[in-house]
Amino acid sequence: MAWQPRRPSAEQQQERVARELRVSEAAISKWAARLRSGGLRALRARRHPGQPSRLTPTQWQQVATILRAGTLVAGFPTERWMLRRVAQVIMVRGYAAGTYNLTLTYRFP
After folding, report:
1. Fewest beta carbons within 10 Å, which of 34, 74, 84, 107?
2. InterPro entries of this UniProt entry (predicted)?
3. CA-CA distance, 63 to 86, in Å (whole number)?
4. What gap in Å lies between CA 109 and CA 86, rounded to an integer?
5. Same domain, yes or no: 108 and 63
6. Domain that holds residue 62
């Protein structure tokens, strides 16, 4: 019998996919379980619970542009973004008034 390459296990494949997508292996496992139980339809994006965003998509894009430019360009003394500074950027631009509990996520480029 001729030599045949060994196929990676499902666990090894999930580890590889998690690394490539820069997400946790737990997320890949959840996605795989949803795919098995409900097919592609189960993988569709679902509505997130909670209050809708107070900023429009255009405003979020403008905030993202400011964040990419860096803190020094935005007028802060050090090169570190903090949630309070992001909130200040949003307030100064007039996108929101008052203090809000901002939940932000980072997406890898």
Report:
1. 107
2. Homeodomain-like_sf
3. 8
4. 19
5. yes
6. 51-109
pTM: 0.48
| 74, 104 contact by CB (below 8 A) | no
* Single-letter code of the amino acid located at 67: L
Element (DSSP H or E) covering residue 10: helix 10-21
Distance CA 33, CA 27 (A): 10
Assess whether 30 and 83 both reside in one domain.
no
Low-confidence ranges of the chain (pLDDT < 70): 1, 3, 5, 97-109
From the number of C-beta atoms within 10 Å of its C-beta (0-12, 13-18, 19+), residue 90 rates as: buried
Q: Is 1 among the domain residues? A: no
Q: What percent of the chain is predicted at pLDDT more than 90?
A: 28
DSSP structure class, residue 74: T
**Is residue 62 located within the same domain as residue 94?**
yes
